[in-house]
Amino acid sequence: MIKVGCCGFPVSKKKYFEKLKVVEIQQTFYKIIEENTLKKWRDEAPKDFEFVIKAFQGITHSIKSPTWKKSGMKKEELKKIEKYVGELKWNKVTSEYWDKMIKFSKILDSKIILIQLPSSFTDCEENVKRAKDFFENAKDKVKIAVELRGWKEENKKKICKEFDLIDVIDLNVSEPSYYKDIVYSRLHGKYENNRIIYKYDYPKEELRKIKEKAKKYKECYVMFNNVYMFKNALEFLEL
Q: What is the span of the domain harbouring residue 18?
């Protein structure tokens, strides 16, 4: 089974719900949004529509990240949490954030929470230890997909296998280091000189190659995250 969607709503929710069956929510990454908002989305969406939650940045990113500008938090609030947040630290602050994500997943009936780490979170000894500590504590009924950018394949495979995590990859670039029953692919665009070109419109031939790779797996999420994500998702769906 191949599930096709976008990382975020590139069009109105009404139009999106009519055309696609899964979305990766970006709003939950930037701020802790109102539960009533999520309940409204669940009510508006078709019963068979699937939401994937992107975990709050307080779990993954230090407040040095420019993404915190969208958090809606004041400087004094950020100062209070500065030493606790990001980089998969497990403490009172981040465990409360995780509890929120679990609650969100229940409201939306989500089966996957995505954790996206910044490229600065390398597989050094300290970060591997933090990751193990976090995933040991974060165990729940929800499935965790983790995007570990820049990690060596063997280190990704070890931690994903140990905690039964979904290794988030870009199928256009690589295959998962560990695979049990679900593959989660985020298609960002074109890669040039260690940079991602998000303003990239996937040609049909490239989409066909991605389709052939996705077909090998029992269940595969193909999630577009480029500028032309909605257009490319519909084109992929046609294939």
A: 2-238
The secondary element (H helix, E strand) that includes residue 80 is helix 75-81
Strands (E), the chain: 2-7, 22-25, 50-54, 112-116, 143-147, 166-169, 183-187, 190-192, 195-197, 220-224
Picking from 65, 54, 59, the residue whose alpha carbon sits closest to that of residue 7 is: 54
CA angle 173, 177, 183 (to 5 degrees): 75
Residue pLDDT, tens place only, 16-52: 999 999 999 999 999 999 999 999 999 999 999 999 9
Number of domains in the chain: 1
Phi-psi region of 100 (alpha: psi -120 to 50; beta: other; left: phi over 0): alpha
At 200-231, the pLDDT tens digits run 999 999 999 999 999 999 999 999 999 999 99
Joined tokens for residue 36: 């009533």
10: domain CATH number is 3.20.20.410
